[in-house]
## 1
Amino acid sequence: MGKIKVGIYWAASCGGCDVSLLEIDEQILDVAAKADFVFWPCATDTKYSDLRAYQDGSIDVVLFNGAIRTQENHDLARLLRDKAKHLVAYGSCAQMGGVIGLANLSSRKEIFTTLFGEKSLWPQEESNQDGYPLHLPAFLERVLPLVDVVDVDYVIPGCPPPKEMVSKFFEALLEGKLPEIGAVFAAEKNLCDECPRERKEERITRIVRPHEIEPKQDSCLLDQGIICMGPATRGGCGAVCPLANMPCTGCAGPTANITDQGATMLNAIASLIGTGLEGEEELEAEEAILAEIDDVIGTFYRFSLAASIFKGAQREQRG
Amino acid sequence: MSRIGVFVCHCGMNIERTVDTQAVAATLSEHSGVVYTTDYNYLCADPGQRLIKDAIVEHKLDGVIVAACSPTMHEPTFRRVAEEAGLNPYLCEIANIREHCSWVHKDRDRATQKAIRIVKTLVEKVRGNQPLEPLRIDHADKCLVIGGGIAGIQAALDVAESGFEVILVEKEPSIGGHMAQLSETFPTLDCSQCILTPKMVEVSRHPNIRLLTYSEVVEVSGYIGNYEVKIRKNPTYVDPDKCNLCGDCEKVCPKSVGSEFERGLIDRKAIYIPFEQAIPSSYTLDEEACLGLHPLRCNECAKVCEPNAIDYDMRPEYIEESVGAIIVATGYSLYPISSLGEYGGGQIPDVIDGLQFERLLSASGPTNGEVRRPSDGKIPKKVVFIQCAGSRDPEQHNAYCSKICCMYTAKHALLYRHAVPDGEAVVFYIDVRAGGKGYEEFTQHAIEEERILYLRGKVSKVYRQDDRVVVWGVDTLSSRRVELEADLVVLAISMNPHPSNLALSKVLKISCGAEGFFKEAHPKLRPVESLTAGIFLAGAAQGPKDIPEVVSQGSAAAVKAVALLTKDKLVHSPEVVDIDELVCGGCGICVDMCPYNALAVNGAGVAEVNEVLCEGCGSCVSACPTGAAQLKNMTDWQFIEMIGVALQDG
């Protein structure tokens, strides 16, 4: 039996996912011994034509990181889906749109106007440079998660995926023990399950940002007024952020039962705040607490805006 | 579910007038999973029910939607119908196309379209439903009655007579409540104590009643059928088994305070018995008033107590009981007389409240039934009675009518005329509300036979002039200002909720209305039930009432409690929350949200639900950040399907 064929592709991403593959330390040697990287634009020189030449389903596994921002991302997702036996959404952007997905707060027009100014300066899909035709991939109206474009077999979440999850995936791959289609290489339970901080089941009476207080070591960050996305986020990373006195930002995405991570956590926060006053006074107090939240979308939808129920701003299409 | 039946009710013209029920049935017959639809005039009527039953059997339906009125009306009816046809009742759902549609719209076409959408959402819901079995739970077989007035006494006796053990808790040293203070009762002029005390004695003798006086309910946990209650029995410092009522202690006690039972008309000692027929028949040492319990030691009473009944070291005793039902009969208090400054309340000694006048009329009262005014003990020759004092005055006092004042004022005036035949009685009233058997006749008799002057109008001011009390009022029938000099003014003061209601409502987790009386589950159809299952209300705790009403409520609450206690097992809806243990990470957010204390994070770090406590409100579901908490037959996934079909084009 030949070596396992692995493809790695980056769409709209920062490049952190590609680097994270190296975090598996010496396990990389096992991977190198048993697998060939047949397509990895970040590390090897491979042309799209080479890729097209592969028979459908002939690449054992493709790890796809990044969101779908351009037509090129979109086409490659389709192509890789065809060529891959198993397609893996690797990292928050492929899974949910990630930080890239926050661009959905602005329309294509707004983005181009900000970047290039007046319309005549906007990049054209077809143009002529020094007598040669130049084709640029179209910039899509909105960012899409990979899962909205093609069927995905597995998800390795995280921004970037933490070592434990990547390692677990390669272990399964090399041993030929990939789980059932649909599996997510993270915990089924939320982050609180593995977070050592203790929650006292208290009402939130104030909201602070991490730099504003020195959090107590052992007690839950939510109890201390820092918005931690841990309750609405899959575990599996070992609660590394809360252990470093920083709140979870939700990069691993929601648990299997949840469709909208941000809305779910907003619900939980709305339920948790309270001062114990009665009637109108309580409503006013609660509103004042909620008003302390800085950057609601960035806090609750940092990675999941493109995968949320409303998917982003609707201005352009409605108008 | 792939064999769903949809039954659309006309509700006479209630639905049919604005919704084309035939069109609803026809459209739904095209909907995926629906195999049978029909419309019918009255589905809740016997033939309608039979139609549903037959269709379930004939078409082998595995899900049923009844598109009709609100599920609060007939959900139990149609679920029973489904069950009788062999279908799990939780696979039958109600689509409310009456309250939510036909009653609130006029445009027939659009209302019909809306009704179709409503029914479709319910079809989607039923497709996601699971067959469920009701939870069957054991229960305690005792009943707790809070309050030993006539309402509590009646309830306790009725429950006890039905063979169940009753714990009767009374805050004061004796049971009897306000009724024990009354002289005679309208409209029959029965002696109040004469009809009450036999019942009090019966309470004390009844083998099924455990009487805890001078006691308060401090903690209640649990749920219908299984309430755990904690009662604090305050120390009376007198052993009731040893006390022989000789009264020597009272004679030597150096400390006097105003008697609560006599409403401050006379004093009592720090060691006292509220009234002669008190039950339990024993002295009580009021620790607030007593000198001996304070550092400056006085032990006069203990010195003279021959049977050695007095024990200064008595401590509060805590009693814990498991009860299946609770009856709340805390009664009322009077609107504070000092709040009626415009009538000289609390400032003029000869302006008194109705209960004080009862004591002046009572043969066992401080004046032995002779009407003598408080200031100088003279027999008043002219008495002015002011009705609605503190009632029906939303700007300044209570907005509500206290209901009993019209009747007791007529009685007061009549009894006064009996006691002082040459005396003159004047009543100021807004209008006389004498609804009740024999009540109108009674007031007419008082007005005409006893020559009591009824003036229709409000009193604006009462002040003191020398030894008389001047009343400024108006007679609206003759449109004249009235100024009267009286010897005594009796205010028919508003009934207030008992001051302990608010604290008790928190202990019991039942709600009070804005005015402070306990809230019944339904003002017409569930008048003696609270909104919390297994907790019942009786008497003036729920609102102003007279004695016959209070007694009826005591009996009614008792029947409700007995009906519960008689059951072998209690049935609880299985539509409760379910925690997905594989997903729950034990963050505990749901625990804070549950108003019924039904959730806790267990040793394995997973939220665990006590299904019997869960009322299926869904507070935890909306707060759960993992989606682990889902209501049975009302999951997020069902909602998403329902919303999807509700918003579908076309």
## 2
Amino acid sequence: MNYFKGTGDYVLSPELKDNVNVSIALARPLLVKGEPGTGKTLLAHSIADGLGKKLIIWNIKSTTKAREGLYVYDTVQRLNDARFGDRDVSDIRQYIKLGKLGEAFNSEEQVVLLIDEIDKADIEFPNDLLNELDEMSFYIPETGDTIKAKHRPIVIITSNSEKELPDPFLRRCVFHYIEFPDEKLMEDIVFVHFPDLEKKLLREALKKFYWIRQFDMLRKKPSTSELIDWIQALIAGGISPSKVEKDLPFLGTLLKKKEDTDLVNQSGSAHYGYSSSVRTRNVY
Amino acid sequence: MFINFFFALKSYGVPVSLHEWITLHHALARNLNDCNLTKFYYVARAILVKNEIYYDKYDMAFLDTFKDIETTDEMLEKILEGLKKVKELHLSEEEKKQIEELDLDQILRNFEEQLKQEHYKNHVGGNKAIGTGGRSTQGAWGYNPAGIRIGQGESRHKRAVQIAEKRSFRNYSNDVTLDTRQMRVALAHLRSLLPIGPEEKLNLDATIDATCKNAGELEFIWESKEKKAAKVILMMDVGGSMTPYARLVERLFSAASSQISRFKHYYFHNCIYQDLWTDIERRESISTQEFLKSEDNDYKLILIGDAEMAPSELTWVNGAIDYWYHNDTPGLAWLQRLRDKFKDSIWMNPLPRRSWGYVQTARMIGGIFPMFELTLDGLDEGVKFLMKGKGKFFN
């Protein structure tokens, strides 16, 4: 029985850990959503590490088709080979290349399969995979073979919710929404990355970070990964905690848009920044 | 047993299916929730709810169903009610050591016995039974490192009902006004329903030709086919009664321009007349007449405004709100011209739908343009309306 306890280099909430175990026990894909930079992809790495299993990553792009994950039949190669007679072209099997999903099914031991950013693909993409994920098998008409999973892989799917996912697909998943970590959890996360970070610097940096995140108007709110970059920069630059408190050095690592930087710079004190949120009526 | 939870979810509008409900029972049969209501809350949410915008509704349904349920956590609280807090105990090092030698199993057994015998009521300062301030292995505010701590100070395990009561996902609900990311998702419908961009396709004839010319050396000719892209014009009311929404709408624009390849935007104040402003301060403008002549009519037109103004601004010559602005044609006529030109057009209103009936101008504009609320749901609805081409059949 697989039981995921978490790993030392990845901090996660107990709810997420429970949900990972629920999805493993029920043998259903775990669909993870959340703000960018909350560690959705890293979760799969951590699960693979924690359970000591191999990780297979299938990165989805806007042009990815569901079939590519199963297998690709390299007809062009076969046609080329036919002209020179290099290989026996009647053996179609050698021109069938398994995709990531096929690889995971065909593996001798149980693997963790990460389907990364499933919402990037066409809207029909998840529906095309329904049967394969349910039955954990698929049929190759060219050779008449059926690839069946020897061990049901642990499937983790991430989504940035750029597109809605179809209902039949959602019904088969266990869903977890990663909330943005609160200050307490964030401290733990940062400490995993910087074990000997000065407490005072961390506290000041977090205070500023959560203050910036309060701005409703930001085009892109800074996320965990940006915070870690920022702290890295603060350490490398030898910035003292009092300087972080007074002004914001290396703001460019946190905010990536000019409008956002302007907005934060304009609203000098924490008070004003809060009241300039959208919901405030500000009629002149 | 708790089938009413299923119906409560349904009645709050969470889309749960029987399929998921049965999955939940599989999970419960394997005791994945550890007989714990808090864990049940999360496990059931993971299985039943597939979108964070329903988390708030799930919380409310959960509250309705499980508000008065008695959990083990609550039993502990009842035990504590019977106890009174006394001064903290001071022990010598030696005494502390003695206590540390007790092992956990023994303590647990002892604890269960105590529970059975209901010794806990109003017991203070003893050494064996449950009480406060004593050296016994159970109770609060006492000293025993191996002891069982009952509900002392802040519990580390929040009760599920309390978590649900917090309703921390209220902002994710789909009927609050939008933030950039949500708008982008809604606007993605515009894009996703119309496939854009080149698609690679083998051109068989050209391939045969090229291969022949190459003396049989294979040469593939791929052709890219450009598909129809969504074309969108946004017009936004700025200034006056729209000032509070200006920032919101500005964000809508910034979200929109990243989603749609052919995208134009203009500004107006309350109503559209002979000039369309191209900047938010309303200094630069183009002629509406020219605009109507030159643009293709297959653009989707989205107008954003609260449609709240004096009726004269719509119906009078020189009725525009700005005293320096003279219009020969009443605003209503301009709106009608826009509507005639762009059949696929909608009006998004940041005011709630229930208030439209009370605003005369909102009713007038609602007679020309199909009107939707500027919320995630409304935007979804409006965009679907546009994409299905229902605009042609409106009025």
